[in-house]
């Protein structure tokens, strides 16, 4: 039973007066409804990514988009389509997410008018120790050495979270939702260019025979693009879960095989047990929400830092007239980078699993506190590394630390259904191909390397330190935006490690402040500052700002910034969707 106190009620019409002032978005909505779309100004072409419809899914692979849309056409809810799409992604985009990992889900239920936040993040086993990722002499082995094998595997949370949400929001039967992925696993699918490329870049795949045989040819090279990949083991696993429900994963032979694979891993054996798996429980958390120029922007709260950091960036930029600036001019980029720097400073000190650490969520989003932090931003000069603030309710005894890996293998799904329900779900196994351990046709996560490897710094505890049963901090940022009448307007999210925060904030500013069409906001060049150098996307139009930003004191570095933004938005009487061309996403519906 969902506790109504843990959900956010639909916002009321008190925001209408503010909404009227944001004419640029209404102009865009009318424009988009007529089918227009400005030319992309980023480093990636739109590729026809905007589609109109009455129900839409935007997701990271065409197979998942097609089969998720089929569930919508069959009368399924946004939650039903999300389950099917996720199972298919586990098969066709196995490097990013799946049964062996976890997820965060925001779900707006049109019948109740509530937004509910589901936490399916992995947990550390009961055997976890503060020094579990350190060498005997206290040195770090390096992330790649630490993440491979059993020691990095957290208790998977995805399936129980989806089952909990399905009990509240599903319209089709649980078993029906598994059929498309079962059929595809049995019949096979063609290896995509992205899967092929990543299999050739990730060295961990060669360390375990089962994984190597599935992804690599006999010569050790990745199987060629277009090769049919059949996964009978995964089909059988899904068949059993369709019939037996999610509990079969946590209490039966599957759990035993996971625990044995972790315990007897030939590289970095770990301590995950059948008891850890059986005892896992998803959580319903309060979403974090704040007004931005008359729109209510809602995200995922702790243990994810994504929602808070996105809202902090927006809250800081609310002190500046972003709408009067040329989109992503040097003035706008400078302000964004400085706001990002401040948000990441607070994230490093305060955000961790709220069941273990008192996270000052309200204080971090407090208007007076953000006023004080915004006053630190010089519109013309970069301030350099920021120190964390002291928001109301904060415990100043934590050391700011950010030495967790939080790498790039994640995916995002955005869905609007015909009933007015909205799903925004980000899921992950952490590094590409996770721990590289396979069980029954799916990969196990390495999410425990999202903890700080060091538990104490300068005599102070680190908030994101490893503890038994704790969930590692994340930056996943599934987001739902409501208009001034309280109706859901936009669902969006992205993969990308800790840069997820910047990717989502970038797109929101593009849509809300400048009235960019959804496709343009998604495809535009990326930028980020994680309280260090100012990162600009390689090969993009953002590089034109490099010299000007350096003149303002930024240390500019060029990075591959492979976002995977997937978004669906209301446009008049229909919907538009966008899938980031940096990956293999697609938008489908009717």
Keywords summarizing the entry:
20 helices; 590 residues; single chain; Glutamine Phosphoribosylpyrophosphate, subunit 1, domain 1; alpha+beta; 7-stranded antiparallel β-sheet; 8-stranded antiparallel β-sheet; disordered N terminus; globular; 33% helix
Q: Care to count the β-strands?
A: 24
**Which structural category fits the helices and strands?**
alpha+beta
The low-pLDDT segments are 1-43
| Overall CATH architecture | 4-Layer Sandwich
Enter the CATH topology name.
Glutamine Phosphoribosylpyrophosphate, subunit 1, domain 1
Q: Beta-sheet strand percentage?
A: 15-25%
**Structure annotation, total helices:** 20
Measured distance between first and last alpha carbons? 32 Å
In helices, the fraction of residues equals: 25-40%
Q: Average pLDDT across residues?
A: 90
CATH superfamily membership, which one? Answer: Gamma-glutamyltranspeptidase, small (S) subunit
Which geometry do the CA atoms define? globular
Return the CATH class: Alpha Beta
How many separate domains make up the residues? 1
Largest sheet report = 8 strands, antiparallel
- Integer-rounded radius of gyration: 22 Å
Structure commentary:
The chain has 590 residues and is an alpha+beta fold. It has one domain: 4-Layer Sandwich (Glutamine Phosphoribosylpyrophosphate, subunit 1, domain 1). Strands 1, 3, 4, 5, 8, 11, 12 and 24 form an eight-stranded antiparallel sheet that branches. Helix 14 packs across helix 17 (367-374).
